[in-house]
Amino acid sequence: MSNSIRVLVVDDHPVVREGLATMLDRQNDMTVVGEAADGAASVLKAVETTPDIILMDLRMPVMDGVEAMREISKYVPSARFIVLTTYDNDEYIVRGIAAGARAYLLKDSPREELFNAIRAVHSGAPHIHPSVADKMPDKSATLTRQGLPTEFLSDRELAVLRLMATGAANKSVAAQLCISESTVKTHVQSIFQKLGVNDRTEAVTHALQKGIIHL
What is the spatial distance between Cα 46 and Cα 50, in angstroms, rounded to a whole number? Predict the structure, then answer.
């Protein structure tokens, strides 16, 4: 289907990976466009297939899921991540969300919850498993059971925002971060959405007031 949600499945266990792919392909509104067995392979596969959603395991060989998400965001900024893991401790949760995950699910979650999470994240809404939300530490800003905090930005978005605060235009930001101007624009729009603001001045003011960045 042309309007299917394009999903990339990343997991180092073949049985898990293939099982997920088969299960998702049975959904009328989802299409699995690729599979990868480690983080490094997932970066290449994401660039090749430009998926809408990436189901990402965290503990993998060659490159872990957190680093893979950061790398993929550089090349496929439109992709949205869902962490699907067996780990629910504070460190993994914070690292996964910080790397850009819009949902964090455990592998023992019901399949319907996984389907709902994919649809929710594809539509722009976050989804956090209740048992994971209970373990989110206070230090992770205001991560709540309702979803991601509006001020929680990825490392790349923070870099863009810091340069915005200096008055740098998109072209200058692109040159300093060695990315394209269109990628900067994508990051800027994501920053606006997460902060709930409408322009650069509001974004910088809000970020300074909340202590997200400092001059």
Answer: 5
